[in-house]
Amino acid sequence: MSLHSLLAKLPFGPWRNAGPLVSVVRLSGVIGQGGTFRPGLTLAGVAPLLERAFAPKGQAAVALIVNSPGGSPVQSALIAKRIRDLAEEKTLPVLAFCEDAAASGGYWLACAADEIWADESSVVGSIGVVSAGFGMHELLERHGIERRLYTAGDKKVLLDPFSPEREDGVAHLKSIQADIHDAFKAMVRNRRGARLTGPEELLFSGSFWAGRKAKELGLVDGLGDLRSVLRGRFGDKVRLRVVQAERGLMRKLGMRTGFGGPALDLSAGSQALAEALPAAAVAAVEERALWSRLGL
After folding, report:
1. 240 vs 78: CA distance, rounded Å
2. 262 phi, psi to nearest 5 deg
3. Average confidence (pLDDT) over 157-182
4. pLDDT tier, 121 (very low <50, low <70, confident <90, very high otherwise)
5. Euclidean distance between the first and the last CA atom of the chain, given in angstroms as a whole number
6. Please, what's the b/e burial string for 187-223 (b: 16 or more CB within 10 A of its CB; e: otherwise)?
7. What is the pairing mode between strands 255-258 and 261-264?
8. Contact 121, 135 (CB under 8 A)
9. Can you name the residues that pair with 65 across neighbouring β-strands?
10. Contacts of 149 (CB under 8 A, 6+ apart)
11. Gap between the Cα atoms of 27 and 39, Å rounded
12. Does position 250 have pLDDT exceeding 80, yes or no?
């Protein structure tokens, strides 16, 4: 019998009549390396939260709040695998709740759960792979700029945006995309199984749907929000234990804490801010582009 179960039997104190415990982890944002101010979801960043979420003994389940337009397929696979490893190790059910979007890599994360729930307006699916870039060789020519590029290996720069597009480069990229797509499809088939009701040519086309249609296609199990579903499943006294990371922005900007309280190193903070802003701006544009593909 767990410590929680023993304490719950006491006739006094806060443990009396305590309801089932469910740990909650939020997986929100673009998957992969992000900027200084808005870090993306990576296994390195998420793993400590998952370990803490699955740690309590005697809890009823672990809930994932997923709100992501996707991103890195590698990080999606690594995070999902860690969730499954912990779920099997602790013998705990996992429920995923989709917010604005569980699309592309975001849906990959949701598939790590045993059940997936969504709002009627959640965007779900986008089971596909995309790569994007620009071709700027004509712009260079128009302005009289000579591109000088030296390589060892004729395929080293197949997709160089400052050179004319190469057919063998496009073919190579599409081959890689097909391999990643196959891994994504295998994950969905393995986790959703017979619950998938739509034809594969539609489900795996890269398209996406709102929550109600996603339920019809078998991509999600039901419509509902975290609190309502968990109260319906575990009773009105269910306790939600939110697991979240500590904020580190003050440290990144040069804020330090001593015996006298916080102190701001203006020179260090200003320099750190100036160095971080260009990368943060690029990351923000890339994140905006991922959300925009979903119309959000």
Report:
1. 26
2. -65, 140
3. 87
4. very high
5. 48
6. bbeebbeeebebeeeebbeeebbebeebbebbbbbeb
7. antiparallel
8. no
9. 26, 97
10. 157, 160, 162, 163
11. 12
12. no
Q: Tell me how far apart the 2 most distant CA atoms of the chain are, in Å.
A: 85
* pLDDT tens-place string over residues 195-206: 999 999 999 999
Extract the tokens encoding 195. 């619950």
- The answer to whether 122 and 102 have CB atoms below 8 angstroms apart is yes
The residue length of the chain stands at 296
The dihedral through the CA atoms of 202, 70, 172, 140 has a sign that is positive
CB 108 within 8 A of CB 73: yes
Looking at the predicted structure, is the pLDDT value of residue 291 above 80? no
Cβ atoms of residues 204 and 127 within 8 Å: yes
Q: Which neighbouring-strand residues pair with 67?
A: 28
Tokens linked to 17: 């009549």
- Give 71-81 pLDDT, tens digit per residue: 999 999 999 99
Calculate ∠ Cα 206-130-276, nearest 5°: 130
How much is the pLDDT for 131? 81
Angle at 281 between CA 279 and CA 285, to 5 degrees: 115
Task: Please spell the DSSP secondary structure of the chain, one letter per residue.
Answer: --HHHHHHTSSSSTTTT---EEEEEEEES-BS---SSS--B-HHHHHHHHHHHH-STT--EEEEEEEE--B-HHHHHHHHHHHHHHHHHHT--EEEEEEEEEETHHHHHHTTSSEEEE-TT-EEE--S--------HHHHHHTTPPP----SSTTTTTT-TTS---HHHHHHHHHHHHHHHHHHHHHHHHHHGGG--S-HHHHTSS-EEEHHHHHHTTSSSEE--HHHHHHHHH-TT-EEEEE-PPP-HHHHTTEEEETTEEEE-HHHHHHHHHHHHHHHHHHHHHHHHHHHTTT-
